[in-house]
Amino acid sequence: MGCGKSSVGRRLAGLTGHRFLDTDDxxxxxxxxxxxxxxxxxxxxxxxxVEHRVLSEQVGICGLVLSTGGxxxxxxxxxxxxxxxxxxxxxxxxxxxxxxxxxxxGKRPLLQTDNPRxxxxxxxxxxxxxxxxxxxxxxxxxxxxxxxxxxxxxxxxLREGRRFEY
Length: 166
Ligand SMILES: Nc1ncnc2c1ncn2[C@@H]1O[C@H](COP(=O)(O)OP(=O)(O)OP(=O)(O)O)[C@@H](O)[C@H]1O
Ligand SMILES: O=C(O)C1=C[C@@H](O)[C@@H](O)[C@H](O)C1
Ligand SMILES: [Mg+2]
What we know:
Blueprint (H helix, E strand, L loop, with lengths): L4 H12 L2 E4 H9 L3 H8 L1 H13 L7 E4 L8 H10 L3 E4 L2 H8 L13 H19 L2 E4 L5 H15 L6
Parallel strand pairs: 1-2, 3-4
Helix pairs in contact: 1-8, 2-4, 3-4
The chain binds adenosine-5'-triphosphate (ATP), (3R,4S,5R)-3,4,5-trihydroxycyclohex-1-ENE-1-carboxylic acid and magnesium ion.
The site of (3R,4S,5R)-3,4,5-trihydroxycyclohex-1-ENE-1-carboxylic acid (SKM) has 9 residues, from loops.
């Protein structure tokens, strides 16, 4: 959460000329309301169902940079779809940098708790093994600008793209 998937993903698409999509944007469009509004009105389980649906609709689309929500990979079926869609990158940073980025806007619904810091690090710890499992490669963006992170993602994707050479 907050590692830069949306902002860096958009720059990556700019580098490659691919279309850019973000599952959070697709969810908000499909629902006609914002992510915080969906969480507040319907809860996380409902959000995860819509998230799965919009991801499923991307299957078969080529030439795409797709940013996801930070929790999309929690469902095994979503991990399976991602692996079939293309090269999967894990955009990471050190824990404090991630927390600082994730809390810049104060809008992330899962961090609306009494202790956002504790919540954030608990979620991160719960998710690390899943990120590791699904990703083809990882980029540590702690000391990278947005553009440098996008370039590192491109380098990694070109390296790992062999999985899709038939
Ligand atoms: N490499 C970076 N250096 C400094 N700030 C960054 C970097 N990457 C992203 N940020 C900043 O961190 C904040 C969160 O970025 P962004 O919204 O792109 O993250 P995200 O991974 O899409 O979050 P979410 O999981 O909520 O969808 C933004 O203010 C963004 O500009
Ligand atoms: O990390 C998460 O579970 C989330 C991250 C955001 O991108 C949104 O998908 C939503 O706020 C949930
Ligand atoms: Mg995002």
